[in-house]
Amino acid sequence: MSVSTCPSRPAPNSDEQNHDASGLDAQDRAIVLATQAGLPLVPEPWEAVGREVGMSGEEVLSRMQRMQARGVIRRVAAVPNHYRLGYVANGMTVWDVDDTHVARLGREVAAIEGVSHCYRRPRHLPHWPYNLFAMLHGRSFGEVEHQAEAIRELLGEACRDYRILYSSRILKKTGLRLAAGPGDSGTHGKDIERRD
Predict the structure, then answer these.
(1) What is the pLDDT of residues 63-72, one digit of tens each?
(2) Between helices 57-70 and 26-35, what is the axis angle to 10°?
(3) How far does Cα 157 stand from its chain's mean position?
């Protein structure tokens, strides 16, 4: 599993001496640094993290929930390596969908099995008319193209054009990292896939 953190921002707190610029106290920072490369794959991950940072698993979970509520941590989510699972054809489909229907149709596309990401983005005319993006994964290019055709049918007359942008290689696959402070070890990174 992976812990994904938002860009740091100060949290409302009157005790500024015990918090760094991100709004994290020393214990929160230790938890983020201990989990940013992923949670341990054990039956009790919060307990394992707690042993590493010197607190109970219950306290670790409580602090993680508070950081998420404050927006310091965006989410805790499983991040499977789809290549290792055999999904070697990965295509970001981009769609030119009528703006009056894109919100409704986007929700329908997001609900399709096999769509791992679906979101609306602004057009950049005249060079980029696409406003709906949906990531598809398949064991072959044919499988991805079949999935894209199903989306095309769902979009119907509201869809004017689409493309499939296949991933050609993974450049980096990590979540955002805290900068290392004195005595910390940490790196910066983000999810990047190259699409040629």
Answers:
(1) 999 999 998 8
(2) 100
(3) 31
Place of tokens 């499977």: 80
The pLDDT tens digits of the residues spanning 89-102 come to 899 999 999 999 99
As averages over each run of 10 residues, the pLDDT of the chain (196 residues) reads 43 46 83 88 95 97 93 79 80 97 97 91 96 95 96 98 89 62 46 39
Omega before 126 within 30 of 0, i.e. cis: yes
Edge-to-edge strands, sheet with 89-97: 115-120, 132-138, 89-97, 159-172, 192-195
Please state, in angstroms and as integers, the Cα–Cα distance from residue 163 to each residue in 68, 122, 135, 140, 180, following that order: 36, 16, 12, 17, 40
Q: Which residue has the tokens 């004195």?
A: 182
Structure tokens at 171: 């450049």
